[in-house]
From TrEMBL:
It is found in: Cytoplasm. This is 4-hydroxythreonine-4-phosphate dehydrogenase. GO terms for molecular function: 4-hydroxythreonine-4-phosphate dehydrogenase activity; cobalt ion binding; magnesium ion binding; NAD binding; zinc ion binding. Signal peptide: none annotated.
Length: 325
């Protein structure tokens, strides 16, 4: 009789040490302990005073340690930190923690990567960080070109087809090839990492009322309908383009597993309205599982005990669920 496989921990990179990442990691461990074992990659000098932590030398130790202390796989930084005060000297350490987390997942020592928020300017100032953010850096480390950002909560999953660009640039950036790739990566991620054999995907229109037959915009008529019809059936269960203002009430959400939206706010406003504290950032298209809380470093409240750990807790739980799928 074979023994059940030993669970693998999640690797949690520390993020910006002057932000709320270290204190949220501790709060998350206090809530989850051994129900969702993770190891923290960072400098223990940056943890809040009085934290119950234990240094480990390899990822496997985290599973046993988690019940009594937060497992720490040490990454030495250049300097201590003061909550709320960015120190560019620590930028290289933040990058090293991310790289170490990716290495653990790629080697099979950890089941997934969860990343605490980084401060992009601090990384640029201190280490000439050449990437716009976490997602692009992880795509580089995973050696992939196309990835998709999903925001997920118990209430809703949304994917913006275009992300951090000006609204005026969206119609030019939103091509048929881009939307097709977004649909393909989203569907594959829902199948592989969310365990949905036949995911249902709703696609929003770009214009008000999905263009209203050309009266309020022409993209839906010119190419979006044809693309959706071409991909429909077989591996894809698609609907749309839908007017975005009628896609997110309860009855509409029951008809799909994820919604693909055409620009940043079209996707993020509904999920942050429905479930602000529990939204999780998921990167689809990587060769490993990656989740992150859906908030920033919040340096203005760091060290004051005000930070809400709900999103990080949900990010760790979702990473565990995705790994099981």
């Amino acid at each position: 009789m074979s023994r059940p496989a030993r669970p693998l921990p999640i690797a949690l990179s520390c993020g910006e040490p002057a932000g709320i990442g270290p204190e949220l990691a501790v709060k998350a461990w206090q809530e989850l302990r051994d129900s969702c074992p993770f190891l923290w990659l960072g400098d223990p000098r940056h943890l809040p005073t009085g934290t119950d932590w234990q240094e480990i030398t390899n990822a496997a130790e985290a599973v046993d340690v988690s019940a009594s202390a937060m497992p720490v796989l040490r990454v030495d930084f250049a300097a201590p930190t003061v909550p709320g005060q960015l120190n560019p000297d620590n930028a290289a350490g933040v990058i090293c923690a991310i790289e170490a987390g990716v290495a653990l997942v790629q080697s099979g020592e950890a089941s997934a990567l969860c990343t605490a928020p980084i401060h992009k300017k601090a990384l640029m100032d201190g280490a000439q960080f050449p990437f716009p953010g976490h997602t692009e850096f992880l795509a580089h480390l995973g050696n992939v070109q196309n990835v998709v950002m999903m925001l997920a909560s118990p209430a809703l999953r949304v994917v913006p087809a275009t992300i951090h660009i000006a609204l005026a640039e969206v119609p030019k950036a939103l091509t048929a090839a881009r939307l097709r790739a977004t649909i393909e990566i989203t569907a594959q991620g829902l199948r592989d990492q969310f365990g949905l054999a036949h995911p249902r995907i709703a696609i929003a229109g770009l214009n008000p009322h999905a263009g209203e037959e050309g009266a309020m915009g022409h993209e839906e008529l010119d190419w979006m309908r044809a693309l959706i019809a071409d991909m429909q059936g077989g591996a894809y269960t698609l609907s749309g383009p839908h007017p975005a203002d009628t896609m997110f009430h309860a009855a509409a959400r029951a008809r799909y597993d994820a919604a693909i939206c055409m620009y940043h706010d079209q996707a993020l406003i509904p999920i942050k309205t429905l479930d602000f504290d529990r939204g999780v950032n998921v990167t689809l298209g990587l060769p490993f599982i990656r989740t992150s809380p859906d908030h920033g470093t919040a340096c203005d409240i760091a060290g004051q005990g005000l930070a809400n750990p709900s999103s990080l807790i949900e990010a760790l739980r979702l990473a565990q669920s995705m790994a099981r799928s």
